[in-house]
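Follow-up to my earlier ticket, as requested here are the two runs.
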Amino acid sequence: MRNLVCIFILILLASCTKREATLSPEEAARRDSTALRVAVMPTWSCLPLYYAESTGLLTDSDTNIRLLRYTAQMDIDTTLARGHAEVGYSDLIRLLRLQREARLQALLSIDEPVALVAVKGRRVSKVHQLKEKTVAMSRLCITDFWCDRMLEPADDEAETFYRPQVHNVRLRTDMLRTGLIDAAILPEPYATWMDMTGNKVLRRTTDKDPQLAILAVRREAATTTHTEQTMRLLEVYRRAAQQIADAIVRYFQEDWQQRLAEGVRQEKQKYLWPNMTRAINNL
């Protein structure tokens, strides 16, 4: 049953689309010009926005909010810098680097757990066994930050690790799944998916680690043109995150009660989903 949770989240992130009534070209142009465009990635921290869109939370009022989907954080950076979106998924490291190109500020600190995952079949069960092997990641962002720290105990010589840049998170996951790389830094739910398919999670972030992921907003959007929509976005995120958290709690409570009834007394939860309530507490 735990596999079903992972599959459901992956399907929702990968294929969630917004169905709208057909609009006239004039009405469509007007709505596009007034929309708050939000650039998102198919990862755990953006899940509340995908969920809000699929369940109608984004459309249950007159607030005009549109999701723009990307699979690489670098593409979101470009979108924000060029003004093609007012809000987007980012992190504090990227935020500092983008100040030269766009006036951005942090709108919300969000939880983006990541893990160092080694491919199955390569006899890698410890971090030091990754020496002279490839660890796919994305540079100049929190993926790079956590890669440095997760490899730190074995990083006597930086050149002993090969770190190809694979910015597309789906491509990075697929390369690990097919054995084209030895390991990768993956966000959720991809890390748990790889864990379920027999790959080895060597390290993962916890609730005690700093939250570096954010929703960034262009300053003019936050203070003038889209102030009301920005506040509405925060409320929608909070409501969606709370509903997801409640659903996960109900699922594991029911599943554990069933396992106890069947006499199963092993580990309560093998696949540890991130704590969505941590994101809610930031609002």
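Run two:
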Amino acid sequence: MPFEPVGPGDPTALLPWMDDMGPAMAGPTQPTITQQMKDKANWRVLTQSPPPSHNQLQEVVLPPEIVKSLDHAARATNINGKEHGGNIVREGGDYSAIDTTDETSNDSVFWPDRSKTDGKDFVGGYHTHVVDKKTTENTTFSEADMTQLLEDGHNIEVMRAGNSTKMLARTKEFEAIMNKAENLDDLGHEMEDAYNAAYAAALDGDLQRAAKDPKEHERATEAAVIATATKYKLMYFAGDRNVMRRRGPGAKPAAPKTTYVPPTIIR
């Protein structure tokens, strides 16, 4: 079932960022200041080196500027039926996204250009997937998307399809695998092979099932991402436009949301 926005309008309006602290009390949709600080800390942990352990995080909230860039890219994809994307960069504690889509290309697939950073620190990439009659918001990463995390400084890869967002993140265990590898190209091929093997296994070897039924393709792709992320100790998150929770082994049930109960007034 496709993911739905967390509320009407821009969901980032429901989550004031730590820099403008918002009300001190928490309501049904208003997180506490402590939660806001945790959300921002989780994002920073994922985008800085060294990366966290593969079992360290369960939930990530995207910064508003990144959500806006994903919204813009998704709208453009809906209009022209092409993937859009770019680079996520950091300057100090501020994050932004740089659109590197080649608007002159007739290719429907996004090809990244990591050279465009505006002099800021590159921390990851983002791109969209087309949502149409054959592909729903449940679409996820391809094997080529996953191997991008082998690039220098590529801590995260974010993918948006409609209102659904997914993210892959490096871990210290994954970097240990990279450091032991004699050749990162060979490691990338190994990851692709693991992905394709898991994809085929999810279809019981009958690849025609995926060709005939898009839902079967999406189910097998999800299984392939989880299997590859598990084998290579990557973190995999999925959610709506700004809030994502862990998927696959290591994922834990979400904690109940805090609701503010006003004090009883004694007259």
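The only thing I checked on run two: The radius of gyration is 19 Å. Let me know what else you need.
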